[in-house]
Design a protein that fits this description.
By secondary structure, the protein is α+β, with helices and mostly antiparallel strands. It has helices at 15-33, 37-42, 77-95, 136-139, 187-200, 245-251, 278-281, 286-293, 330-333, 378-388, and strands spanning 7-8, 64-72, 98-99, 129-134, 178-184, 205-216, 267-276, 345-346, 349-355, 361-371, 395-405. The structure holds protoporphyrin IX containing FE.
Length: 421
């Protein structure tokens, strides 16, 4: 594959580029007032696209999301392979903060549409990551067809998710042959990336649905502070973190003995669009909210403990002899101790997609979780939560997806090369 160098978005406009750069420095200074100087400085830089694992999984979770799934509209294997090559080249450029194509946004021939749509001109890479995954329908479509000759390569772990109690899934916000997760600290950079990949896909793929997210709802590194979800609770305290290298091999990355070969070093992504009935939640007392989660709202500490990262004591009882962390609290039911040791790397985002016409916010959590085997991790955990979690009174799962995300892309390779080998 020929890799094109692309055009630096920030060098492009000369003096205007410099003005934007000053603006970025101003942003850094503003954030530094909040005492996050080092993080602010890092937030504009690039994240390496190539490597052993795909970026955007253990990468410290960025602040913004644009997630899209695509349906493949061609039956031609060659067309899909060409698209994956073109997407990979574009993804490598965009994550490096460059325009796509040979001429980019403004230097091409005046008669032709620009190769790059241009709204990221002048913006830094802003830690953009692009992560690809393949859904079950990529391997066998709804009619049972093996469109691309890859049916035999479908991983056993890429199961169709079962129906969970309470699921109210909208088919138009579920599934998809291919998913691309764009994360960045700048929403415009994330949107630009998905828009340009969708544009490259015209004639081969169509966007099935897309979801914007703001405000990460997890931390994936111990260097990050724990953010809050729209229930106002710290989220991501007991998450798998990039520093847990041994655990990541056990819980996150597909190992050689798991197979198939093309998935080694990869991971399975489950996406769930979870609507929150915010208005009901907001009329619930503080003590009830804390009992539902099992943690204090201010500190994030497990009930009965003082600090966020204190170990949860599931045996501790209150003066009435009831467990301090209730039997049906979210953190008890989701904890590895009650799920055969299963853990997840959660990487979700808050969303508010306006209101629903009934005076309620269309808001919630776009749940994204990576794992080594969904049959042992997401599925049993969600079955338990769907059955008993007291939080269910305030949430509804309205969209769903499962995707096999291959291992990292070595330089000179492309997304899915081993799958199509
Ligand atoms: C809108 C839906 C959800 C909300 C608001 C929510 C919120 C929370 C909060 C506040 C915590 C405690 C902080 C932490 O340790 O991260 C937590 C923990 C956790 N949640 Fe959720 N969650 C939701 C859905 C889910 C789903 C669907 C799953 C998986 C099927 C899940 C799995 C977990 C796990 C594994 C933990 C860590 C438990 C532990 O080991 O202590 N959550 N969640």
């Amino acid at each position: 594959m020929t890799e094109r160098k692309g055009i630096s978005r920030r060098g492009l406009l000369g003096a205007a580029g410099a003005a934007v750069a000053t603006g970025v420095a101003g942003y850094g200074a503003h954030s530094a007032l909040a005492g996050e100087e080092s993080q602010a400085a890092d937030n504009t830089g690039p994240v390496e696209f190539h490597g052993k694992h795909q970026a955007g999984i253990v990468t410290p979770a960025q602040d913004r999301l644009h997630f899209a799934t695509f349906d493949v509209t061609t039956n031609k294997r060659d067309a899909v392979v060409s698209l994956l090559k073109e997407w990979t080249a574009a993804a490598a450029l965009m994550t490096a903060g460059r325009d796509i194509g040979q001429y980019g946004a403004v230097n091409g021939p005046a008669e032709a549409p620009p190769e790059d749509t241009g709204e990221a001109v002048g913006l830094p890479p802003a830690r953009l990551t692009l992560t690809i995954g393949f859904g079950p329908s990529f391997f066998i479509d709804a009619k049972g067809n093996d469109r691309f000759g890859i049916k035999a390569k479908r991983p056993a772990a890429l199961v169709d998710l079962p129906h969970f109690i309470g699921d109210n899934l909208d088919p138009n916000r579920s599934g998809g042959d291919i998913a691309i997760q764009a994360c960045s600290d700048d929403p415009q950079v994330a949107v630009h990336a998905i828009r340009n990949l969708a544009r490259i896909g015209f004639g081969t793929t169509s966007v099935r649905y897309s979801q914007l997210g703001f405000g990460r709802t997890s931390s994936t590194s111990r260097a990050q502070s724990t953010p809050r979800n729209l229930f106002g609770f710290k989220d991501g305290t007991n998450n798998l973190k990039l520093e847990d290298t041994d655990k990541l091999e056990q819980q996150l990355w597909v190992q050689p003995e798991d197979g198939p070969d093309w998935m080694v070093g990869g991971s399975y992504l489950v996406s769930r669009r979870i609507r929150m009935t915010i208005e009901t939640w907001d009329r619930t007392s503080l003590s009830e909210q804390e009992a539902i989660v099992g943690r204090g709202k201010g500190t994030g500490a497990p009930l009965g403990k003082a600090d966020e990262f204190d170990a949860i004591d599931f045996e501790a009882k209150n003066s009435e002899g009831e467990p301090k962390v209730a039997k049906e609290a979210h953190i008890r039911l989701a904890h590895p101790q009650f799920n055969n040791g299963a853990e997840l790397l959660r990487r979700g985002y808050n969303f508010v997609d306006g209101s629903d016409g009934l005076g309620r916010l269309d808001a919630g959590l776009f749940f994204l979780a990576y794992q080594r085997d969904p049959r042992k991790q997401f599925i049993p955990i969600q079955q338990q939560l769907a059955r008993s979690d007291v939080m269910n009174e305030y949430i509804r799962h309205v969209g769903s997806g499962i995707f096999a995300c291959p291992g990292g892309v070595p330089a000179g390779s492309f997304w899915g090369e081993k799958l199509f080998a």
